[in-house]
## 1
Amino acid sequence: FQLDPASVRAAAGLARAAGLSGRPDQAADALLELTQWVDDPAAAATVRVQAATELADDRPEAAAQITRGALDLSDVGVRAWGLWGALAPDAGLEKIAAAVGAPGARARLLVEAARRRREADPERALALAREAVGLAPVGAFAWDLIAELEQAAGRWAEAADALAEGAAASGPATDRVDRLWRLADLRLYRLGDIDGAIDALRRLLALEPGWPPAIERVERLLASQGDWEAVAQVRLAHLAAVDDPHDQADEWFRMGVLYEEHLADSERAKHAYRAAVAARPDFFDASKALGRLLLASGDWVGYAELLQEEAQRTGALDQRIRLL
């Protein structure tokens, strides 16, 4: 490198060797020297960011200055993600974001600046986060931050809107389920918006069909509105996710009671009770309810067949004789 400072390979090799041997200052100096011989601004900025990376742990202020210099050269400096810890104070992130042309990179920097400011200056943090989501899709975590800040300020409608945006963003299903549950909570208890809560719970159940707390809550809300047909649809969707025969029988029996008592639909009730008996042949309550409906509708043949099926299933001889 001393023989030929313009040798890119020599400078890069020296920087690599110095970095591996634990001499970050020498590595950074070699890299910065290298930038003098690189004509392409993007390449020079990349080298500067690498130099700043070498210094980030031991000399964070110098690393921050070098990173800013890289960003002045080219947008490629957004590789400075790994140097967030070296940039202080928080306002430094905002200044760097202002120098970045790529909307996605700028938005991510603004979100990080907002995250760091949320304790000391929540309103400024909120403004930064909203500016970020207005620039580019930055992921659900930005909407989570907005929702948190709006809730802290008591602006429940705005917090609900942010949670809805976060739930609509791509990401793991478990995270979306959590956001939708919180959204339903907020709409129900803070805004008194039953329809909005039901909508959030329906979306949640589309992702997690068998989650009992959501099923119980949406059924309760729909029942409070007298929408028993919708309750039935929720239960049917839940049944598709139930594997245990004993649990299936219980769910079908509940369906039968709903059809019979709330929808006055004896045909669907009979179907549900019959499905409960099929899932659990010794389910006496379901069998009794089915027999009662068969008798009420004058279906003597169906009732006789039911008694015959029970006789075949029972092990007690006197019971079998009575049924026959």
## 2
Amino acid sequence: FVTPNWRAEGAVGFSGTLRVPIKQDGAPKLAVDFDFDLRDFDVVMPEYRLSLEDLVGNGHFSLPYSVVGSFSGALFEHPAAFRVTSDNDWIRFDIEGMASHADVYQLIDYEDIGVIDGVLSFDGALDIAMTDTNVTNLALTSDLVGLEVRLPSYLGKEASVSSPLALDVQFLDAYQSIRWSYEDTQGWLHHGDKIERGAIGVGTTPPTSAQDQQAVAISGTLDTLTLSEWVSEEGEARVALPLDWKIDGLQVKKLVIDDLAFTDLILGGEQAGETVGFTFVSEDLTGRVDIPAAGLMEIELAHLRLPSSGENVSKYLGGDQLSVER
């Protein structure tokens, strides 16, 4: 499981037994059984973007590949505690540590897009596969206390607020599969040399995505969608996803566009390059919103049923054909 890319440096003390056979027939097998102590020991694992530093503690090693130990040290330049166990299939690092927002971006190998800020505590487990049939996996959980989340609507939070997050990274041969659960959203991304595809499920499991799709698929159910929280007055998305996205059959219980509110819609939409568009269908409203790369947001309504109070909505309407009911 140790690759040529791993690097280790520091002081190690050994005490135990080593039995080496000196003849081919009738000799006992190679046997290794010893205790070891680490002092200011560093281990760098580039494949997993982890660097365990200043390790101090003791452990036990024996063949065939059994290791156990407890160590203190640092991870992401913050104090951390490590517990190592193993069996025939896995070697496991249980981790209690802390990480900054910059460390989170480093862990998923993505640029800082400014949606998180602060330092969080986490519990983690790195399971390194000892056989070719298993996949190395890193799992992290956190209550995110200490981390500000700058996402629109209910997805955002202040640093003092607790909001559970679960993050799982599988290190496959061709790419890394990143899965998460946060608030009522679940999602996954495939990351090779860059983020290649993904999916987000709102209040449900994320949709499946074809292997050749270069986009993030979004579906599920949303209680309230206020357009201004997600799109600026200049027509720019307030959150930049890592690649184009496509919404398919998102059920929205309430859609708010400026001073207008509509209920029970089916929302579609996509971003292709710098162009963004939405479609919506309900008993009260059928139409689309186009947000071009340059110019003002355009709203085209094919059907609109107004409330009996008769608000002035002429400034929101566009297109040559419009069915209006009161």
## 3
Amino acid sequence: GDGGLIEVSAASSTLFHGSTDRSAPLGNSGELLLDPEANFTISTMFNFNYATTPLAKIPIKDIANLTIDTLLLELQKGPVTIQTNFEGAGDFPGYIQLCPDVSCSYESPHSLTLCSTGSKGILWNGSLVNKGTGDIKLLAPNGKVHLTPTDKQFPALIQTSGNICIDSLGPLEITGTNRRLAGLKTTQAGQISVYTKENVTLTSAQKAPALIHTENGSLTIEAVGNLTLHGLNDAPAELCSIGFGEIIIKGSKSVHLNAESGPALISLSSQHGNLLIDNVSMGVELNALGDSAFLEGGVGSVTLKRIGSDINLFSEQGRCSISSIGSV
């Protein structure tokens, strides 16, 4: 049989720095569920957000912390889910945060799931790279998902050879800053799926790209709001599939590529796969103001259908195009 579920939960905060055994020699490893009624941080420091007394380290009420070393150890043993239903008041809304001091790589076939029902959602300010096939899922049913580096040393990056899934009520914001990129990446045949009831926005900054990349895996974005790529300061804002993966964008209010002082692009990198933009109610707009804005297909097709308004291409100082080796 399979390994069992181990749950660690509390009416307020929790302190988890031990280890579990969820192994099943002839089955699948069991899941570790961390479920405090508190905001949750993942940091390199044992005492992050904790009050230190002469005898013990005690979690501050309504804030739980897990060290990244403990998390990576548990991901070697089986899947890990961190969830919280906490919603504070006033300036203390509910969230889960990957802290900016985290910049780690690991290799695991097991999934990592973060689920915050708080209105602040999930804040991803560090870098976590899985060289294995384990999926990474960020779920914010009442809030947003925001990736941005807040430390000049490390990017804000989610990368795995498995799949990445982001599902949120609020917007997905990927913002490069501090000369560090912000992005989602899959390697091998990992897929990226983004579902949100609001906007998806990628904004670059000086030497700080904002990107979503797949390698031989499909990229699907279903956003009820606008899909906007802002290219600034010579750094790209881009959706890109390298290899055989498709790019599918559907159900958005609008698609805007604004290349102000950096490129803004949706590209298949002249490779195989198709690009589909479907059911966009308020049109598609490419603005090449100071750099290039383009939709670039590969050997496959580029298809724009059920576009409810205009398709506008505006070039001032940069290149602006919709092109493909295959059909358009």
## 4
Amino acid sequence: AETVGMLLEAGADANGVMEDGTSVRASAVRGLHRFSGNHVKEGIPDCVRLLLEAGAATETPGKNGRMLSPISPGGMSILPECLRLLVDAGADVNALNNRGANYAQITVYKDPTPETIELLQDIIKAGVDLTHKDDKGESFLFYAIPTLCKPDIISRDETTREEAREMLDTLQEIVKQSQPDPAALDRNGNTALHLAAIRPGPATDKVLHYLIKLGVKTDVRNKFGRTALEAMLRNPAGPRCAQVATLLKDPGPLPSGDEAQMMLAVLTNDTATLQNMLGHMRDRDFLTKCLQHAQSASAADMLLKAGARPHNLEQLVRYGRPEVVH
């Protein structure tokens, strides 16, 4: 920031353009995509502040009459502090980044904090179009899914828990304002329910309930032929809890494929189905994966006897197999 200040004082143009066509202001906002460490992150907003004070424009004309914002193409690297500076400087909140996303879409993608919620509310007050879809046809709802799942509504700390619930309620109300289309799909044919089901987070269960209440169908299959439930069960990161599987099982179709059906049985503690399937399921790696998600000692014991490998002794003791430990 000190260097930027010296250059501006020496007469550098705050609206200058680099050889690749990128404006100086855009480079500052993006942090050159290389920032790391708190001291560098703190310097990026300082640079943006100096450029704005020196007269840098908040957006530039693009093709087809479209106004372009200096936000990075995916919007992932821009700091919320930079978004705040631009909004406070009177930026056109409907200006788009290279992906066609406006300020609301980029902001709602950020980690939920009181500051980002307030910023989002200010962007709405400034007249942002919440119904806008980016160049790939994705709406505000699709950008909001990761953030909706993050508030720690299950925290042991009561204050944290209450603040998280308040943030989630506020975000859900904003999503309603965006007039979400329950039938909307992303480029891979996923509904909002697909995206939430594979997203780990303290509030995922609540978000799934919310989306179903909005009217998102549970029986829609994406381009890979999977419903939201099947996508969750087959997710490389692994399914996370029995509640998610139960929530999706009741209103939607059962998954196809032995592995998906067995994982569902494990998650819902359906020991009768599990026992039947273990008669022909012998893949030890998959059985071991199932063991990680066992919801009872009975299910775990079945999996261990069928050949699942425990990850540690604690897992064996937890599921009552002291003879294996000895």
